[in-house]
Specification:
The structure is a homodimer of 518-residue chains. With 518 residues, chain A is α/β, with parallel strands linked by helices. Chain A is built from 19 helices and 19 strands. In chain A, strands 10, 12, 13, 14, 15 and 16 form a 6-stranded mixed β-sheet that branches. In chain A, helix 2 (48-65) packs across helix 10. At the A-B interface, helix 2, strand 2, helix 10, strand 15 and helix 11 of A face helix 1, strand 2, helix 9, strand 16 and helix 10 of B.
Chain lengths: 518, 518
Amino acid sequence: MTRPARHTAPTTRNHRRRRAGKSAVEKKPSAAPPYITRKLPPYNLLDEESLVRIETHADAILCEFGIEIRGDPVSLELFRQAGATLCGERLKFEAGLVKHLIQRSAPAEFIHTARNPARSVPIGGAHTALVPVYGPPFVRDLDRGRRYGTIADFCNFVKLAYLSPYLHYSGGTVCEPCDIAVNKRHLDMIYAHMRWSDKPFLGAVTSVERAEESIQMCRVLFGADQLENHCVILGNVNVNSPLVYDGTVTRVMRTYAAAGQGVVISPFILGGAMGPVTSAACIAQAHAEAMVGVALTQLVRPGAPAIYGNFFTTMSLRSGAPTFGQPEAMLAYMAVGQLCRRLRVPLRCGGALTSAKTGDAQSAQESAQSLLPALLSGANFILHAAGWLEGGLVSGYEKFIQDADRCGMMVKMFEGIPLDTNAFAMDAYREIEHGTHFLGSAHTMNNYTTAFYESNIANNVSYEQWLEEGELNDEQRANAVWKQQLNDYEAPPMDVAMDEALQAYMSQVKASREDRWY
Amino acid sequence: MTRPARHTAPTTRNHRRRRAGKSAVEKKPSAAPPYITRKLPPYNLLDEESLVRIETHADAILCEFGIEIRGDPVSLELFRQAGATLCGERLKFEAGLVKHLIQRSAPAEFIHTARNPARSVPIGGAHTALVPVYGPPFVRDLDRGRRYGTIADFCNFVKLAYLSPYLHYSGGTVCEPCDIAVNKRHLDMIYAHMRWSDKPFLGAVTSVERAEESIQMCRVLFGADQLENHCVILGNVNVNSPLVYDGTVTRVMRTYAAAGQGVVISPFILGGAMGPVTSAACIAQAHAEAMVGVALTQLVRPGAPAIYGNFFTTMSLRSGAPTFGQPEAMLAYMAVGQLCRRLRVPLRCGGALTSAKTGDAQSAQESAQSLLPALLSGANFILHAAGWLEGGLVSGYEKFIQDADRCGMMVKMFEGIPLDTNAFAMDAYREIEHGTHFLGSAHTMNNYTTAFYESNIANNVSYEQWLEEGELNDEQRANAVWKQQLNDYEAPPMDVAMDEALQAYMSQVKASREDRWY
């Protein structure tokens, strides 16, 4: 079994040339690690017997019911040649086959290279990357309310992601730029990620053409050679659960994989709808579905970077609407984390998920109960870690700030508890009297600036001071923060020539076709 | 080493007599278990070596610096006779001594008997009890804002706790009834718990006299014989950290322990103030302090029920104010959980802690990050699980409802994932087509009512419906819930004669002394 590592970061072309824009000191994200290296062990919810039970059921699903790939004969043929039984568009797999196809070549860990090499992110193992919201057609802020997203909003979210020391990607479709034609907006989105951030990003998946053009823009930025040997862009796709891959999805997956670029494959299962109403079944089904997707990338190009995704959530029994941050999803994350570690591939799950309409208590409650369990489950790639509102329909400005703060807490938490001599502070006890306090002790003075996580929106002042300051709630405080951040934003440097090359490519593609709005 | 179990629940006297009040069907909390039995394993944050390091430091603190008990020669003498070195009011302990004093008699688990035996709660092992907020002088609701608590507020919180299927105690000082004299209000508080709920409760700890009278009221309710052999009331005390027990506290502890009643002993450590600014030191110090308290109960009465408590939190580096739900506290819970399991005594930690002034996103965020880690740490007794606001200064009506909902999520989560044949739902896959949905499948129909936790305040409807319904946020929805609940409340049954006996005792005590207001 070959498990290729892809650990060498290239020097991107734009960092080798002269810099565009301000020559003065630029405002940059503060110095925090460009990704999380978890010092905490993952939570082991299930015992060996339970895990084997789930794996056996996943195999039974693949064997008895199989997976359909609709409208992509190439993918079907790849699986048939690899040993699956093909009947029409349905593939059936004997027990262990899909796992074997994964384990013989899928990387346990790979590097997602950023244009700023200092921001490249290892995906897998003990690493976790926190990634902004993906996909909402709407945006919301306290001043202007809920409205369709625009490219201006898109750029704002890219900038906010760039500025947060606790977000490790600038993201993908941070909101839909609805003011740009559907068949052209992917170019503007990729450009915004390249130009207004230097963190890793995701590309288009809505058609093969758009995926190819996303990759082509990376060839311009990183150079064709670098792209051939390094993962510089990810495509994020969903399974049409239950048990179906749409051919558009598999062809996009093949496009990314063939170029050696990463694919995130997530069954989206709302329990009771795209899967049975019981968690065990949904976990087994999702495992079966995700494994087939990861296996496909390996049939296209052995060693291609792939992330095993999971998006399981519950529904309201009253309305049938999706619900988030609920007990069943927390448990599923933890079980899926164990299954994925046994496969030895990177895991995506979690986020700051909520069905709340605003940044209220429901929003924070559900988001906290999505993000913390995801980290504890050992997730390596956490999409929707900031900005998600209303079941993914809305990217929220205040929510983005609230979530980035929670991400900061996770970054601090997963550094673990230092247990060195300084941490035990025995000298401090020699300095202070019983029943007094450590506030002025030398140990406190030496350690207080790094001791505790400090939120930029939580309010801990006295009631009287809070009254005097206008009785602002958390969402209102977040409103001031994103405005200040956008006001202070300065773009990371980019070569003028590179900027021109990217814009030239976009112009040429845009000129080659008519606008399409659906 | 003797580890007595106290598992037989008595029949309380009031359940043997004729019932007072309505003879019709009474409104009662819905049928949920009277406590959590955790099906999830506790999270093991630290390895053996790290745990031994902390234990060694705790022993070093006890040996080198020792613990002072100020103003209680009886407690000092008990420890001196048990092998501690006494110098003035300071006790020093050789390594392992305090642990030995605990382990030779402290129960790993005990039953807190409720007046309704069906609501008795085992404290320890895999059990967790969720207990309301304790101690705030203020109350808050959306209609009347923040104000001093009254006995009417107190009774309201007792009733709300009684009505929640997810709270297992009616609590202790759910708010201070500031309209009753300081030296008499404990009687009204105990009476309210006895009369308006039938769940377990906590008694007074502010003086030996008040502790004795709390216990005496229990003798009236449960009978002196029952009380002698069963834990029917708990006293909740704090250490005067660093490294000091106040004599009032130890005398109250001795009062409860001598009567065979339970004591919860919690070092309250704000890192940087009552302990060093580094977590490892605070964990070791708290371990040392809590152990000494548990040991004292065993010196007073071997086998007396005791709970090892922990209340560690962080502070804002900007204001010096306490902060809650932060990464350092989450980690400390988990480490303390491991230390406490090694001692084999019940653990108190966590809650729904926050410094937020209202039931906003900060409040939910911090509370979620206090409650879930406490459950994962294996806490057996979680005080402040509902209602706490503003660092414990305020009992919030809306917050109480928001928190009770979160408690419901924990109850559901810690039932774990069923992995039986029904849960894997293989028949459902035979019934439905690939790519369709399970909404109408027989399996969904048979399981949907119990499949997922259903919040009573989360809003999952469409944006349009939410707009039409008035754009209510989580706190506003909670406002409607507590009003409805108090409106629908019906008291649990109590003998008329018992009610008269309790009131007669209170009147007699109250008549025996002048009001004191401080």
